[in-house]
Structure formats: structure tokens, C-alpha cells
From TrEMBL:
Its main location: mitochondrion. This is Mitochondrial arginine transporter BAC2-like. It is a multi-pass membrane protein. One of its GO terms (molecular function) is transmembrane transporter activity.
Amino acid sequence: MEFWPEFLASSWGKEFVAGGLGGTAGIVAGYPLDTLRIRQQNSRTGSAFSILRRVVTREGPCALYRGMGAPLASVFFQNAMAFQTYAILSRAFSTNSTGVEPPSYNGIALGGIGTGAIQSLLLSPVELVKIRLQLQGKTNQNENKNQSGSEKGPLHVARNIIRTEGWRGIYRGLTITVLRDAPAHGVYFWTYEYMREQLHPGCRKSGEETFRTMLLAGGLAGVASWIFCYPLDVMKTRIQAQPESSPAKYKGIADCFTRSVKEEGYSVLWRGLGTAVARAFLVNGAIFTGYETALRCIFHNNNHAAMQTENSI
């Protein structure tokens, strides 16, 4: 019974819970735009608006939230672990890791890279299932609607992948997920820490930045990281979107890149970028605002409880 108060009283507990709450806020805020991004990346033509209109008309507004259960079920633990891992690694790699000063920018970048690589082990299967569900309606327009896995939830899709492709199938796209997420997270955390300090000098040490600073710094961090890794994200979507019921279209990352560029030109590498950038600003502003706000609330509640305890003594 004493575990939860003691856990929240530790710095690890605070960062874990705050990271989880921030991640949940980000999923809820940006999921419809994520669905549009995935559909754009996996199609040859169509603007975000035309795809949005087609999806809503043919499949209904709920189709924009199809597959949200998979990331929503894991996002609290995933983001909690990501922020906790980042906090540990950024301090470990920092040249001024005294516990008083904030981590150095080099430590932040290296900590972010390590966080992205580790997080990919959990994120890759979740995104595989999410992508299959997000593209389900599109697939059903060209294939038999009785196709295995049609109109089913995340658990059914995951079981179907494991049954037909084995455990190796559930980790399809792991390599490119690591290649995308490791450097992108380095850019992500570095940009956030740099921008919050520029917008509110001294806040990295005091932790007293405004909500406006959190939103802007978080949003800009998301935009910077997505622009940096976007071509790899397009390749990842195409590799993971390949249905388990048919032979793989792409033999690997290099083959996916070569064939996509040859058939559709280099512009395919940036297809859906506008949607991704809009989503990134919204989602990551929400994530960091949720994270920093949760940290403040936890610290405030813990300090308040400590003062009551002292007074009672």
C-alpha cells in the first residue's frame, strides 16, 4: 500500500508518471492527423484534404481513429519509459552531471539517441499493428472485404501477424524504426531543451517556464525531429504496410527506397510532410505541456504532503 506514495516521491517515479501522462495527451490530440499521414505515405496520389474527405465519406469519421487502441494501450508505459530513459542517459552522458545543473546539450543529444534506439523495441510492433489498422479501409477497397483481419481490433491483428508470419513478422520494420528513431530523438530532445531556454532564459534550471514556452518548444521539437527523419518514416510505413496475406513487395530498406523513387520520383520521400508537421507541432506541444505540468503537480503535492507531515510532528 505504501508503494505508490514512495514511488511518486522518487525522481524516477515523478518522471515515469509525467512522461506517461504527456504521451497520452499527445495520442488523443493528434491521432486523426496521424491516420491521414499514414494514408498519404502509402498512396500514390491525393492531398491530405482529399484523403480526409474520402475517408469520412466512405468510412465515416470514426475511421480517423481506427487503430488508436494499440498506441493508446501502450503509450503510457512507452512514453513513461522514454522520458525515464532519457533522464538517466542525458545525465550519464552529460559532462556536468552534478545533479544540480541541468544536463549539457551534448548529454541531451546522446541521451535522446539512446532513448530512441531503446524505445524502438517496444514501438516497432505497436506501430506495425497501428499502420495495418489505419490502412484497413483502404485495403478493403481493392481486396475482398472478408479478408482475414478486416474490421478487427489490435489484438486480433497482432495474433494474425504472429500466426501467419511468426514472431519475426511482428518485428517487421524494426531496423528502419531504430534508424529513424535514434537520431530523431536526439534532435527532438536537443531542440526542446534549446528552445525552452531561448524562449524563457534560465528555465532549464528553475523549471518555471510558462505554458506558452512548453507548447512552442515542444511543438518546434516535434517539427524539427519529423523533418529530420521523414524520408525514413515514409519507407517504414511502406515496409510495415505490406499485408501478411500476400508476398512482400519490398525485400528491404534499400529495395523499398530504390523502387519507390524509381516509380514515383524523389517527391515520394516527402509525401504527407505537411500533415506530419502539423500533427507534430500539436502532439508534441501537448506531450511536453502534459509532462511538465504533471511534474509540477507531483512536486507540489509531494511538498505539500511533506509540510503536513512536519507540522504534525
